[in-house]
Each structure stands twice: as structure tokens, then as C-alpha cells.
Amino acid sequence: MQIDATTFVLQLVNFVVLVWILHRFLYRPVLAAIDKRRAAIDKSMADARTVRAEAERLRAQFEGRLADWERERLKARATLDGELAALRAKGLADVAQAVERERDRLAALQAKREADWKRETEQQALEQAGAFAAQLLERIADPALDARLVEVLAADLAGWPPERIDPLAAAAHAAGGRVGVTSARPLSEAARAHLARALSERLRIECRPEYALDDALVAGLCVAVGPWLLQANLREELRVFAGGAARAA
Fold first, then answer.
1. Which of 66, 70, 204, 240 has a 20 to 30 Å separation from 193 between CA atoms?
2. Do 166 and 230 have their domain in common?
């Protein structure tokens, strides 16, 4: 088979034209499509990397928040435990104080009951002793005892300080020296003279006693100087004896 030059040239031209046509209308669009596809793939991969990086950031942020929440939870739990312990301690202290107050109240109540019982017992004993003493003194009371009580009153007046005597003296001067003397039985002349002399000396005025009788005094006398009353009789002494415990309490 002979290949002439013309045919060879024509075939070569046809090949070149074919290659140009393929390059022009097939290869370039395919390359463009490939490049476009590659760009899309690169963009998708870049977007995927961006999404992955964002996901990693969000995951780290979430883990950080979880760690913060765990620390806050532990801190809140510790605070709550501390508050509960403080409340428990305060509650126990309040209960202990309440128990102590109740114990003190019961002790005070018991002490008061014992004191009341003791005072009532002493009062009853004093009243009984006073009644016994009154009965005994009523049997032994006589003018000699009255005279002795006059002497006791005179001795007391002699020992009183000015602040006690001055009000009596003022009352005696206002009454013109009149004083009231009440006795259980008539006083002897000597006892009356002794009493008048003692009153006059201490009250700085001549006293004029006005006498009266009251057998309820048992023995002794009661002297009234204006609004003041001087007691030197067994009735008042027995009352003081019987009521002393009640006044001292």
C-alpha cells in the first residue's frame, strides 16, 4: 500500500483539525467543568473545615461551661452544706438554751415554792409563838411591867438622834404640850412623873399627858404626839414579832 504525500498531508490536516475541534469544543468544556467541580469540592471542604472548627469551638465552649457548672455546683453544695451545718448548730444551741431556760425556770419555781412554804411555815410558827407569848404575858402583866415599859420608852427617847426628835418636838409645840397616853391599866404616879419628865426634856416643852385605858395593849403604853405614835406595849411588840418574817421576806 502506497501512501502518497497528498493523502498524508490531508490526513495530517484532518487530524490537526480534529484535535483542534476536540480541544475547542470538548476538552476545554470538560476542563472547565472539572475546574468548576474541583472549586466546588474545595469550597465544600473549606466550608466543612469551617464547620468543623466552629463545632470544635462550640464543643470546647460547652465543655468549659460544663466545667464551670460543675465548679458552681460544688461551690453551691459546699455553701449549702455550710449553711445547713450552721442552721443545725444554731438549732442545737437554741434547743440547749431553751432547755437551760426551762431548767432555770423550774429551779426558780421550785425555789419560790420552797421559800413560800418556808415563809408560811415560819409565819405559822411565829403566829403560834406569838399567841402563846400573848397568853403567857397576859397572865404575868402587872403594874410593875407597865412601869418597866415606861422606863424602856424613856431610855429610847434619850438615845434618839435629833432627826427623830425634832419632828416630835415640833408636833408637841404645835399641840401646846398636850400628848395622849394610853395604857393597859392605870399607871402609878411615879411612872406618870417619869414619863412626863422624859417627854418634856426630849421635846423641849412642858408636856401635859392626857391618860386613857386600853386593855388590848396587854401591858405598857402608847403615846400620841400630834400625828406621831410611840409604841411601848406588848400588843405591838407581839404583832412585830409575828409579822417580822413577812416584812423581812
1. 240
2. yes
Distance from the first to the final alpha carbon of the chain: 163
DSSP-assigned letters across all residues of 19-79: HHHHIIIIIHHHHHHHHHHHHHHHHHHHHHHHHHHHHHHHHHHHHHHHHHHHHHHHHHHHH
What is the dihedral sign for C-alpha 141, 142, 143, 147? negative
* Number of structural domains in the chain: 2
CA 113/CA 109 separation, integer angstroms: 6
Q: Is the pTM of this model over 0.70?
A: no
Type and span of the H or E element at 159:
helix 143-159
At 7-25, the pLDDT tens digits run 777 787 788 777 787 777 7
